[in-house]
Each structure stands twice: as structure tokens, then as C-alpha cells.
Amino acid sequence: MAQMTRRRFLRRAGAGVFGAPMLAKGVRAAQPAANKPAAPRKAPAGKPNILFIITDQQSATMMSCASNKWLKTPALDSLMKAGMRFEKAYATNPVCMPSRFSLFTGHYPSAISLRENGQGQGTERFVPLAMGHAFKAAGYRAVYGGKVHLSGKLANITACGFDQLTRDQRDGLAKECAAFLKQPQDRPFLLVASFINPHDICYQAIVAHAQRSGSRRGNEAVRVMQEAEKAPQGVTEEQFYKTLCPPLPDNYEPTEGEPKGVAAGLKDRAFKPWIRENWGENQWRRHRWAYCRLTERVDRQIGVVLEALRAAKLADNTIVIFTSDHGDMDASHRMEHKSWTYEQAARIPLMIQYPGVTRPGHVDAQHLVSNGLDLLPTLCDLAGVKPPPDLPGRSLKPLLGGEKPSSWRSCLMIETQFSHGVTDGRYKYTLFDAAGPEELLCDLQTDPGEMKNLAAKKEYSDVLRRMRKALAEQVAAHNVKLPYDVPSQ
Fold first, then answer.
1. What are phi and psi of 372, to 5 degrees?
2. Is residue 98 within 8 Å of residue 376, measured between CB atoms?
3. Under a CB-based contact definition with an 8 Å cutoff, are residues 101 and 154 in contact?
4. Which are the contacts of 371, defined by CB distance < 8 A and separation ≥ 6?
5. Residue 222 backbone zone (phi > 0: left; psi -120 to 50: alpha; other: beta)
6. Average pLDDT over residues 329-357
7. Number of neighbouring beta carbons within 10 Å of residue 214
8. Among 349, 345, 204, residue whose Cα is nearest residue 288
9. Better-scored residue on pLDDT, 44 or 196
């Protein structure tokens, strides 16, 4: 990110925290949605193209169109002009490889016994069932650029039915996608643009922990992260923390009644408990500043791709999907990184734009959605493509046009390295592997920061039993093996 001069800082401060965003050419910020969404236009004839944009480690709230005033994401905001956003969208498992397995196969990562980044079991069974093959068989050109990070045999993206556009995950990916979109297209395409950021935020804690022992670590990701964490030039430390740097989140402190399984899980990497115990307020706030700047960086890259789509006059017949594989704790409960059922790690951005089908500017805050389970059946439904067999997810097509589906899921399971959880949209219940097992029950309506564990409260005993039953049913339905039985009483 280019350094900010003192003059630029003062100009921004005069217009508010960041003032009016500078938009990439051709990218217009989303206008606030009216009380009544505009009627969608008629969808064009013929099979639609598909542009599937994925970022890495971007929480649901990390967009200015999601009312985050500490960053500006004009490219992502522009998707809301003819698109819509799902507020209650979750990853199947909030860490890279398990989540990406779901995104490209439509199944929970437990189908290959994958709970963390590593090698799953039986991945070869899913290679012919991957997204690329489904669309290739329907006459699409399936093209993949950027980060793959899939497990086992699925790591070979060409074996999964895709042509590989580029392995670059940053500016080079944006340029290659733009060049592809400018080419004459003789058939519909599925283009996956998989960007790495804001994942570079991971290295802030890793580097801080390493430096205490005198070790050094340097690569492109570290350099990008260190550039992002710098304060603007010409701005004093006092001005930086008073005016520019995001404050601590409301749920900065650990959850009251935090299960021991949280501390046990943090011990999987030495830097995690060290950071929790040793970082102070300003270090956590600097983390949040860098996370915003890395998100803005990837938004600019996405803007290059979206501008190319418009310049090629393909936007009216292209479905644009934007999501992320998982979020980041970003100082919530004094944690960073991912791998938890907490909202900051598990809830992800999900926007779909398809002119003539999606309701412009609409936010669906009602339906529970899984990006890993639901995107593959949705894309197949919208494009008239035969989906792979036995997908457990649901097509979002009825929700895009404002229809009321005859039925929808009443709960959604979230798998993690350390636990299994379930939410019904209001309550979230998590069963930890360690220490017993242990339970966490939160009311997302009255306690959106998940600051109070209600599992031991007598007045919530009925809710606890209901959520236990919901998790047990999800575990049985998806053939998940737990280290402990779900408590029944």
C-alpha cells in the first residue's frame, strides 16, 4: 500500500475517518439500499458466465457495505448495485483447506476426515465430483487462477477439471483475470479468482513471537504485512491511535465462562497463547489497522477484475460470486487467526450478483447459508448444469429472487479443529473435544459478541437441550464421528 503523506492524512481526517473513498476507474460504490428493493431486470438468454471471487481470511464484517467505517472496499461495494448479500453465511470449517474442500465439492470436510490443514482421507473419490468437472461437462470453459490449497489429490487443480490460468495470488492474478476477460469468448466460462489477502495478517503475530527469540522471517507475505501495519507518513503516534486506528472490539475480553477447550486449542501453535497473554491494547489495535489495509489491498485487485468484466460488456450475463474461506478473530476474545466457531472466524462475506435475478442492494438477514455447501448447487441451478450427486447443500436461487422457499434449514453445523458447533440463527452451541467434553452456548440476539457462556445457566436448560439435539441430528445426518457423544440431558 502506498504511504500516506501528511497532507493526504489531514485531507482524510477533515472528511471524517477516511472521507470519500477513491474508486477505481469504472467501479462505483454501492448506494444505500432503499426500504423496498428495486425490481430485478429480466435475465438475458443463454447460459451465464460465472466469475467466482474468493479471498482468504476475510470476516463477514470486513467490507464498507457491511457498515465497517474503518476501511473502504469500493469494488466489493459495487457488487451490491445489482447484487445481494447474505448476512448469516458461514464456512463449513473456518480454516483454509477444509473450507476450500467444501467450496469446490459441496460437502463437509468431515467427508474426508479433514478438520485442519493437512491431508484428508479418500480425496481421490471427490476429484471427478469437483466443481470444474461439473461445468466442463456442461460445455463451460473452467479456468482457475490463484491460491488452491486443497487436500490430497484435489490439490491438482487441472485434475479437478480446471485450466490453470496462473499461480499468482496477488496483482498478477488480477491482471491475468482481466486479460482473460478481454479475450473473445466462444463459450460460457467459469473463472475462479482466488486471492491470498487479507491472509497476510497471519504473519503479524507469527513474526512478533519469533522476534522475541531473535529469529527473523522474511518473504513476500511478511513484507506485505509489515507495509500494511505502518502508520501513514507524517502522522504522529498520538494522531494515529486517536484518529485513524480502529478501536478494540466490544468483545475484546475472553468469554465469561470460557471453556478450557479454548486455551487447549490455542496451544497448537506457540505464538497463539503468547500473543494472547502479552499483547497490549495498541498492539491489538495495530493488528486491526493492518487487517483493514490488507483488505483494501485485495479490494483493489478485485476492482481490476470487475472493471475488466464491465469493459468486456460481459457483466449483464455473468453471475459474480464473492466469498471468503473463513474469517479472522481480529482481537475478539484476545485472539487472532481462525479455527473457532466464534462469529469473527466462522461467519464470512457472501455476495451474489446476477442482473435480472438478484434483488439490487438486498441483504438477506434471515436464512442460514453455508458457502461451502450451498454455492455449488446454486451455481449449477442458475446455469442449468447437472450437479454432482448427493450434495447436502441447498440452491440459493429462490432466495436471490425474493421467493419464499417451501422449507429451509433450521440449523447449520460448523466443524472446527477443536470442536463442533451448530447455530439456529439465534443460539449457537459448541461442543469442544478437550477437557471432558465442554460446552459453549451463546445467544447471538442479545449477545452478538458471544461474551457469556449460558451452558451452565438453569434458565437456559431447555435451549441447551434443544441445541444439543440439533447438533446430534446434524452429526448423524452427515455421518460425522465425534470423540465424544453429544450430551443428551
1. -70, -35
2. no
3. yes
4. 89, 90, 91, 92, 102, 103, 323, 348, 350
5. alpha
6. 97
7. 6
8. 204
9. 196
Q: Is the pLDDT of residue 217 over 70?
A: no
> What cell does 220 get?
513476500
Helical segments of 44-157, H only: 74-78, 96-105, 131-137
For residue 339, the model assigns a pLDDT of 96
Angle value at C-alpha 315, between 310 and 319, nearest 5 degrees: 140
Global pTM value: 0.90
Is the separation of the CB atoms in 363 and 84 below 8 Å? yes
**CA 34 to the chain's CA centroid:** 26
Cell numbers that stand for 480 in this block: 460425522
What one-letter code names the amino acid at 460? Answer: Y
166, 367, 409, 421 from 364: Cα distances, Å:
34, 7, 15, 22
Q: Are strands 350-353 and 318-324 parallel, antiparallel or unpaired?
A: antiparallel
Q: How far apart, in whole angstroms, are the C-alpha atoms of residue 97 and residue 118?
A: 7
Count other C-beta atoms under 10 Å from residue 117's C-beta: 14
pLDDT tens-digit profile of 56-95?
999 999 999 999 999 999 999 999 988 999 999 999 999 9
In the Cβ-directed half-sphere of 334, how many Cα atoms lie within 13 Å? 18
- 3-state DSSP helix/strand/coil % of the chain, to nearest 5: 35, 15, 50
Question: Could you tell me the three cell numbers for 437?
Answer: 467434553
Please, what's the largest Cα pairwise distance for the chain?
Answer: 65
The secondary structure of 302-371 as a DSSP string is HHHHHHHHHHTT-GGGEEEEEEES----TTGGG--S--SSSHHHHB--EEEE-TTTS-TTEEE-SS-EEH
Which helix (H) or strand (E) segment holds residue 51: the answer is strand 49-55
Contact (CB, 8 A) for 466 and 454: no
Q: Which three cell numbers stand for residue 8?
A: 493526504
d(CA 434, CA 413): 19
DSSP string, 128-176: GGSHHHHHHHTT-EEEEEE-----GGGG-TTTTTPEEEES--SHHHHHH
The residue among 110, 105, 81 whose CA lies nearest residue 160 is 105
Amino acid at 447: D
Confidence tier at 6 by pLDDT (50, 70, 90):
very low
Residues 431/484, Cβ–Cβ less than 8 Å? yes
Q: Map out the domains of the chain with their CATH numbers.
A: 46-405 (3.40.720.10), 413-477 (3.30.1120)
